[in-house]
Amino acid sequence: MQKRLLLNSHHLSITISRLCYQLIENHNKFENTVLLGLQPKGIYLAERIKAKLEEVVKKTIPLGYLDITFYRDDFRRRDEPLAPNETKVPFIIEDKNVVLIDDVLYTGRSVKSAMDAMGAFGRPAKVEFLALIDRSYSRDIPVEANYIGKQVNTVLSQKVLVELTEQGKKEDKIWLIDNNKK
To answer: From the CB of residue 37, how many other CB atoms can be counted at a distance below 10 Å?
Structure first.
């Protein structure tokens, strides 16, 4: 197994700032915009995005957590049942601009599941997607991110590992792991 560092703590901070300013360009003061972090790992990035946005726009921005476990198309195909995470959407998304946030965009299936899960909370005016890492050339479903932290060309034998301090890691590091190399 070979690991290559994609983003360290410093570069991650810069990337999050850039993503926030892109969001501000499109959503101004966030009067009609809410953030939804995808469980389990997208919520950490969503919390950081929310904190940075609030620091810049000087306003509280609604953030929710969306669990997609029961909306996954492989839910019943697994040997081991998936454990659901908390869904916490303390606001109505009807006619809101929703920004879905996740750490890695891979096949697009998680985004599709999130779109299905959102239906329980209303019909948004618009949905956008923010991904910290976009794994190019790997889509099973025609999905793309509106906001991308870093785009990485990957093959099937590789995986992206996101390690954040919120997950108990010593420092933030985003890795590309190649399982074919020794």
So the answer is: 26
Residue 55, both tokens: 């620091």
- Please check the confidence at residue 36 and state whether its pLDDT lies above 90: yes
Alpha-carbon span 145 to 50, nearest angstrom: 18
Q: pLDDT tens digit string along 73-124?
A: 655 555 676 666 889 999 999 999 999 999 999 999 999 999 999 998 999 9
Residue position matching structure tokens 């946030």: 101
CA quadruple 55, 53, 176, 115: dihedral, nearest 10: 150
pTM above 0.90, yes or no: yes
Backbone angles phi, psi at 70, to 5 degrees: -80, 0
Whole-number average pLDDT of the chain: 92
Q: Angle at the Cα of 49 (from 140 to 143), degrees rounded to 5? A: 15
Number of C-beta neighbours around residue 55 at 10 A:
10
- Give me the pLDDT at residue 137, please: 84
Q: What one-character-per-residue DSSP string does 169-182 give?
A: -SS-EEEEEETT--
Cα separation values, 6 from 3, 86, 159, Å: 9, 29, 12
According to DSSP H, which parts of the chain are helical?
9-27, 42-57, 109-118
